[in-house]
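User: quick one, fold this
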Amino acid sequence: MKKLTHFDKNGGSRMVDVSEKEKTIREAIAEGKVKMRRETLSMIADKKMAKGDVYEVARIAGIMAAKRVDSLIPMCHPIMITGVDISFDSSFEEGTISIKGRVRTIGKTGVEMEALTAVAVASLTIYDMCKAVDRDIIISDIMLVMKDGGKSGRYLRDKNN
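Assistant:
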């Protein structure tokens, strides 16, 4: 079993020292889902929400969140992000919006937390923009689906998990 890296030998919290690590291209992809009434999803698609274009505001919120992870999560390093992409896939049949966040950098530490945070904040933004018409919205299934780069190499989530 791997050991937790954010604790010293006495159990105290610490930020991992990455100064000796090699810089590599790092990438992470996270996904999440927002479920709502079909009527709400139609309002989003038709750009009829009072607060504006839900997809574009959520996209910008996700990008901004990825850039601020080090101030939100205590042991995360400040990272020079080289790219963030947020995409949405709507299913009117299911009443869902699937969100995918992809983050890249060239650095000494990964961008998994940045991708996960981007998806989480984009999801919360969708909720915020739509709550006036649908308070039953459910945010779910936020997960890392891929990470690449660094000593541990590539990780791909098993589709069955």
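User: anything notable?
Assistant: The first helix runs from residue 38 to 45.
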